[in-house]
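Researcher: Let's do a round of design. I'm pasting the structure tokens now; please hold your answer until I've finished.
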């Protein structure tokens, strides 16, 4: 790119800022902290969940009226209107929604279901109750989501379904994945446990495949403490999944439903969502888009600065994705390229007042239960390595999201990073 007067001045400004940042001693070495914002106010801005007077009121009101079970159909109706899923069913958590989904698949034992290894245990493990076999798929290190190229390599004649997971609120590349699943005749499933409010090409996550699940567990973008939702494109999947853990549902289905005769028993589980959780869900859903909007705006303001720094990137979005942020703002940092170990960077950021952290997702394929054939109808194949998982686990940090208006705190977090990066040579040799 040609150097214009403006780009020269911007570059000169950045160099001057970096020089200024370098001249200040790191807080780690006794210098002043970059973040002078009140710690109590900063932690209140990042506190999760965001419950308030409205949640307290609905719980009190419900205890007074005693109309607990009315909350369930009311929440299902509102969630369906929000996501535009053809059929939905509330469950007691994401795990029970997943288990019901695998029952609904009704596939012969030994059928393979592709699933990321970088995920929550129940997404893989609940398959074993129905003789299904998880085929572990890697993640793309640029996005931390489903690696379609790895799925293509692992396709076998036994593969019947493919389940993607929208890690940390990042939509998977649903156009390419849907097209491939269609071409190969695979049933597309989505684990949208992290992605409340996220969309791809204007469609909410959980509406691309035949079935999907959400979790409303406490840490999730729409928390009800515990709770889950199943989403279904067809009436038959919906009825089968609902009947698995809802003995009271079959009688509500039309006379020709194959599961109608199982009224009073369902198929042996009781997976009803707690009505108080459904009441919280209805309040949380009303504020979901606004919470996501503020969070996104704050992350973008901060990451616009941080991604200028050496070896720092954020998970790569395409313009047709609207992501949300589950758990925090995950940055992908190539620590080998930076030349400073992650522990040192985190320590230096913490000393500056940025509560940076990291959390490595347990890779499912490495866990004991998958390697013991006795738990499985057909034992899963354990891949030798998953380079995408390993890279993301080793090369990320999380910064807490800021859920309120706080431009000065964002500025101080950015300054802290710039200061630490300006000292990276010194940190590398420490
Ligand atoms: C990706 C993913 N899938 C499914 C679940 C299961 O949800 P729950 O905890 O509500 O059972 C979780 C929970 O953390 C999750 O992270």
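Researcher: That's everything. Go ahead.
Model: Designed sequence:
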């Amino acid at each position: 790119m040609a150097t214009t007067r403006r780009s020269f001045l911007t570059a000169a400004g950045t160099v001057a800022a970096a020089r200024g940042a370098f001249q200040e001693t790191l807080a780690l070495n006794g210098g002043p902290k970059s973040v002078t914002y009140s710690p109590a106010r900063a932690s209140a801005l990042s506190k999760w969940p965001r419950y308030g007077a409205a949640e307290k009121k609905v719980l009190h009101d419900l205890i007074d009226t005693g109309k607990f079970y009315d909350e369930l159909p009311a929440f299902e109706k509102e969630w369906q209107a929000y996501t535009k899923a053809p059929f939905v069913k509330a469950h007691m958590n994401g795990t029970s929604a997943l288990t019901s989904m695998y029952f609904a698949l009704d596939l012969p034992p030994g059928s393979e279901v592709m699933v990321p290894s970088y995920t929550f245990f129940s997404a893989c493990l609940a398959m074993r109750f129905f003789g299904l076999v998880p085929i572990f798929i890697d993640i793309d290190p640029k996005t931390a989501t489903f690696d379609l190229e790895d799925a293509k390599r692992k396709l076998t004649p036994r593969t019947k379904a493919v389940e993607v997971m929208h890690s940390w609120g990042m939509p998977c590349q649903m156009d390419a994945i849907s097209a491939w699943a269609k071409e190969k005749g695979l049933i597309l499933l989505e684990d949208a446990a992290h992605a409340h409010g996220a969309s791809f090409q204007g469609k909410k996550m959980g509406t691309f495949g035949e079935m999907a699940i959400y979790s409303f567990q406490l840490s999730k973008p729409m928390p009800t403490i515990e709770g889950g939702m199943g989403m279904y494109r067809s009436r038959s999947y919906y009825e089968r999944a609902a009947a698995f853990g809802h003995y009271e549902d079959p009688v509500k289905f039309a006379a020709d439903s194959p599961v109608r005769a199982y009224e009073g028993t369902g198929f042996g589980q009781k997976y009803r969502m707690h009505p108080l959780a459904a009441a919280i869900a209805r309040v949380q859903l009303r504020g979901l888009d606004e919470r996501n909007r503020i969070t996104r705006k704050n992350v973008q303001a901060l990451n616009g600065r941080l991604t200028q720094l050496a070896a720092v990137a954020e998970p790569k979005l395409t313009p047709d994705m609207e992501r949300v942020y589950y758990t925090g703002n995950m940055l992908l940092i190539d620590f080998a390229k930076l030349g400073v170990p992650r522990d040192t960077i985190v320590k230096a950021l913490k000393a500056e007042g940025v509560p940076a952290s990291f959390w490595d997702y347990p890779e499912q394929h490495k866990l004991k239960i998958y390697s013991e054939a006795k738990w499985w109808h057909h034992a899963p194949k354990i891949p030798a390595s998953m380079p995408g998982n390993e890279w993301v686990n080793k090369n990320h940090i999380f910064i807490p999201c800021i859920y309120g208006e706080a431009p000065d705190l964002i500025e101080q977090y950015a300054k802290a990073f710039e200061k630490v990066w300006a000292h990276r040579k010194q940190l590398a040799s420490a």
